[in-house]
Amino acid sequence: MNLNRIFLLCLVALGGLWLPSAWAHTVSVTLTSPDGKPLDHSAVFFEPLSFKAKAVSKDLPAVVIAQKRQMFLPAVTVLQAGTRVEFPNLDTVRHHVYSFSEAKTFDIKLYLGRAPSSELFDRSGVVALGCNIHDTMIAWIVVVDTPYFALTDKAGSVTLDLPAGDYHLKVWDRRQLDAPNDGQRITVAGDQTFAVTTDVLDFDPYADVTGQSVEDMQAP
């Protein structure tokens, strides 16, 4: 047996601790509308085709979507299927959080402070959130079957480190028209940059709150 083969077998025996970093590549995506406008706070995710995606760790803390000043913060969240979400009410008025979405239907009746329970999001899809008391409150949770995801920044860009392999590159934007999200098949074999365009509505009624966080709203 030659030394190279012995070295490789040792790496495998150690759980491949060095292999992921050796195979990871930096992939950047810029998402725009057909007229070149960058699309901010949009979900970009890569579904592996040539290997199985790692499941969510049971030790992963719950994601928090708070209610503050009669808004959901953040307004857009992307997470992997199998993740729990908590919905604390930081207002002094009661909220009633619900969703009728196919990917997740739930109903948390009027409460203040910590919600009576967290919710498990175990099915991929887009979940629209509402408040049964305040009709202007709306938010979205994009549930994906992959650990490789991010929200675009103000320039419509994301950067992720991905293992080499084949993927479906998919996007979701709150302004998106009802077009099917079949994505595009890509192969990651090195550092790469992709430009993606999707049709969107011109009107965005949630532009002022989409990027807000609870920390942004702490000032009276």
Explain the overall architecture.
The chain has one domain: Sandwich (Immunoglobulin-like). The chain is 7% helix and 42% strand. It is built from 2 helices and 17 strands. It is mainly β.
Structural domains: how many? 1
Q: What is the CATH H-level superfamily?
A: Cupredoxins -  blue copper proteins
Structural class: mainly beta
Number of strands: 17
CATH class: Mainly Beta
Largest sheet: 5 strands, mixed
How many H/I helical runs? Answer: 2
Shape assignment: globular
Uncertain stretches: 1-22
The run of helices and strands is HHEEEEEEEEEEEEEEEEE
| Helix content range | under 10%
Round the mean pLDDT to the nearest integer and report it: 86
Amino-to-carboxy terminus distance? 70 Å
Sheet with most strands: strand arrangement: 6-12-11-8-9
Percent strand equals 35-45%
Topology record:
Elements: H1 3-13, H2 19-23, E1 24-32, E2 43-48, E3 63-64, E4 66-68, E5 71-73, E6 76-80, E7 83-86, E8 95-101, E9 104-111, E10 119-121, E11 125-131, E12 138-144, E13 149-151, E14 157-163, E15 165-172, E16 184-188, E17 192-197
Parallel strand pairs: 1-17, 3-7, 6-12
Antiparallel strand pairs: 1-14, 2-13, 2-15, 4-5, 7-10, 8-9, 8-11, 11-12, 15-16
